[in-house]
From TrEMBL:
Domain of life of the native organism: Bacteria
Span of domain Sugar fermentation stimulation protein C-terminal: 84-224
Protein name: Sugar fermentation stimulation protein homolog
NCBIfam families xref list: sfsA
Parts of the chain that traverse the membrane: none
Record-linked Gene3D superfamilies: 2.40.50.580, 3.40.1350.60
Source species: SAR86 cluster bacterium
Ranges of residues in domain SfsA N-terminal OB: 13-75
InterPro entries reported for this sequence: SfsA, SfsA_C, SfsA_N
Family, similarity comment: Belongs to the SfsA family.
GN (gene name): sfsA
GO molecular function annotation: DNA binding
Amino acid sequence: MQLKEPLQQAVLIKRYKRFLADIELPDGNVITIHCPNTGSMKNCQEPGSRIWYTDSGNPKRKYPCTWQIIEIDSKYQVGINTNLANKLVFEALQLEGISQLKRYSKIRTEVAYGEQRSRIDFFLNSPDDDQSEDCYVEVKNVSLGIGQGKGIFPDSVTLRGQKHLQELMHMRDQGHRAVLLFCVQHSGIDQVAPADDIDAEYGRLLRLAVQHGVEVLAYKVKFDIGNSSIELTQELPVVL
């Protein structure tokens, strides 16, 4: 995925009020930018870290610049913009880059479904193929690494995430295909696991979902800072 604006480098001063971050530009000026991540951003907001942001150039926006990527441990790149996860997956689905989901000809987004008035990220089907199951795909962004290549989700307790697992199980019980897809925006992660120490209930529900037949996949992005692009490229193992 080509970002609309080029990535520009700066240094993080601090993130605050969830949606804001102060950064220092190469010329020494300090500006406030938008932080498109409502989560805890555990391990991804260390002051003094190198970051990359984009500038919309829109004077009508109070904060025209948006934080996109941070460097951690002086070597790994982490995408903190959770809004990009669905866009990356959508592009990969269109390009048939997710091998397990190639056979569907129709992709719809934000479709109402389930017992709890939810909306699925992607509804896949092939209307002309009687043999193809309808497929419900929920996407979760992974940005928390805990060493030795292990990534975990979630980075804080997520009642919404628990609800989504319950909905996927319900759809599976109704005879549909149900998929949870982890979009890993962290260059140092080689496998994904539930964050049981952070949200034990999510871990329990994830394992229960697998028992119900919900498929759990993980795909990792590749960052190309110089070309201001991000692409979902590599499948990773999910360890339960």
